[in-house]
Amino acid sequence: MSNHQDICTGETSMLAAECIDSRAPINIEEKRRTTTRIAMRVPRSCFGEPIISRLSCEHGLTVTIIAALLGESPEDDGWFTLELTGTTQQIQSGIIYLEELDLEIWDKTAVEDESW
Fold this sequence. Notes:
The model is unreliable at 4-22 (pLDDT under 50). The protein is of the alpha+beta class. It contains four helices and six strands. It is elongated. Strand 4 (62-70) and strand 5 form a beta hairpin.
């Protein structure tokens, strides 16, 4: 391996290509983004919790709200249909988080990837 000196800072570092261990297998499936659609019920007791924000910030998911229904009464539950986009591991992590909150989740459906 050779070292590379940055002209601007004078710092010496390895080239990025040299940092990759050619012996380590690269699992493309771990990096591939996919989309899953879920429906969930959020009880009144969870109102005020940044649930969707945490899915994005803490689990790295892109969350699209497809549908939402909030009752007229403050005692009513909220119902959401969400599309979660991320790696399989990120989606699994996000769903575990929702289950740990004791939210009712159903209709975990993979959405066909329409992108190239």
